[in-house]
Amino acid sequence: MRAICVHAFGGPEVLRLEEVADPRPGPGQVRVRLQAAGVSPADVEVRAGTFVRLPQLPYTPGSAGAGVVDAVGEGVAGVRVGDRVWLTGAPTYAEACVVAAGRVHPLPARLSFAQGAAIGGSYATAYQAIHLVAGVRPGDHVLVHGGSGAVGTAALQLLAAHGAIAVGTAASEAGRAHVAAQGAAALPHDAWDDLLAATGGRGYDAILEMRAEDNVLRDGALLAPRGTVVLVGAHAEARFNPLELMVRGACIRGMATFLLTADEQRRVELAIAAGLADGRLVPAVGQSFPLAEAASAHQAVWTGAKAGKVVLQTA
Ligand SMILES: NC(=O)c1ccc[n+]([C@@H]2O[C@H](COP(=O)([O-])OP(=O)(O)OC[C@H]3O[C@@H](n4cnc5c(N)ncnc54)[C@H](OP(=O)(O)O)[C@@H]3O)[C@@H](O)[C@H]2O)c1
């Protein structure tokens, strides 16, 4: 099969398409013939060698995808050959991958494989930020600071399903149209006065922050009393204003999906499955690239204006 292989950390050019042996599922694993893979900012940071956790070289990137199960290892129950699935936790920039059976989930028939590849990572991150970190309640005002990307789109859909009042930001007109299509008010990232005015001046109960280094300094002034800024994304050091937090009794909290306990992981997966099944969660694909153009996909995820998830077609 063909797979992207990285032999040295570096620029997009280190993503090389190679012929490798088909992986074989061991006990408790399944093999998925992949149709699409999700591309995330973390994939870019790992490839560049700047992420907090790095794999051993050589490696195949990716951690989210969708396809059809074509082999099942010993002791696997509940997953069958022929199942359409979305998955996390396996190298997905490839035509096939093996993964623990517990990491594959049924892909509803009305969703494409590209949409399936947009689920893993994004919805779990958004759910964790909204429900497990910020504790958003129905009727709360929530700012998704970076609403046009993969996590932002998932967050806006989860907030709408939860009955929260959401504002999402995007750089481009197309990004703001995409935010509005998720049922949220849409504004530019740095429209500070308008962002506060959108709450009638009361401020946000929660801010899901995708770009901490650009925004945390001013986020405090957008918060309602006892509000929370959730640090979802950051790529550099950030400054904050302690006085803005003190006078509101507010806080800034970090999060990482790898911190989820097994029980929390199960709760997140059940919520996502329910939302996908009843149609309240509709994964959005912004841009799609062939597997051979993984380098272009990395450039798009790092520099482009977003309107959904960047995916690779792996078949
Ligand atoms: N903590 C965790 O466990 C976890 C898990 C997953 C992802 N993340 C991080 O979360 C962030 C979002 O991930 P993603 O998959 O949604 O990435 P993505 O699809 O590339 O989206 C990035 C988002 O950031 C927005 N953005 C760009 N400049 C901004 C600014 N100055 N202020 C506010 N937003 C800005 C983009 O908007 P425009 O394109 O419209 O400018 C877009 O909405 C990334 O930093 C990622 O590494 C963290």
Write a structural description.
There is one protein chain. Strands 3, 4, 5, 6, 7, 14 and 15 form a seven-stranded mixed beta sheet that branches. Helices cover 30% and strands 27% of the residues. α3 crosses α9. It has two domains: 2-119 and 283-313, Quinone Oxidoreductase, Chain A, domain 1 (Alpha-Beta Complex), CATH 3.90.180; 122-258, NAD(P)-binding Rossmann-like Domain (Rossmann fold, 3-Layer(aba) Sandwich), CATH 3.40.50.720. By secondary structure, it is an alpha/beta fold. Bound molecules: NADP nicotinamide-adenine-dinucleotide phosphate. NADP nicotinamide-adenine-dinucleotide phosphate is lined by residues 40-42, 121-122, 125, 145-152, 169-172, 175, 189, 210-211, 214-215, 232-233, 255-257, 301, 305-306.
Short key terms for the protein model shown above:
single chain, 315 residues, alpha/beta, Quinone Oxidoreductase, Chain A, domain 1, Rossmann fold, 2 domains, seven-stranded mixed beta sheet, 10 helices, 15 strands, 30% helix, globular, binds NADP nicotinamide-adenine-dinucleotide phosphate
What does the average pLDDT come to? 97
Largest sheet features: 7 strands, mixed
| CATH top level label of the largest domain | Alpha Beta
Number of strands: 15
Termini gap: 10 Å
Q: Please, how many helices? A: 10
> Assembly type of the shown chains?
single chain
**Beta content:** 25-35%
Question: What is the radius of gyration computed over CA atoms, rounded to a whole number of angstroms?
Answer: 19 Å
CATH architecture of the largest domain: Alpha-Beta Complex
* Overall number of structural domains: 2
The amount of helix comes to 25-40%
Poorly predicted regions are none
Shape type: globular
**Alpha-beta classification:** alpha/beta
Which topology of the largest domain does CATH recognise? Quinone Oxidoreductase, Chain A, domain 1
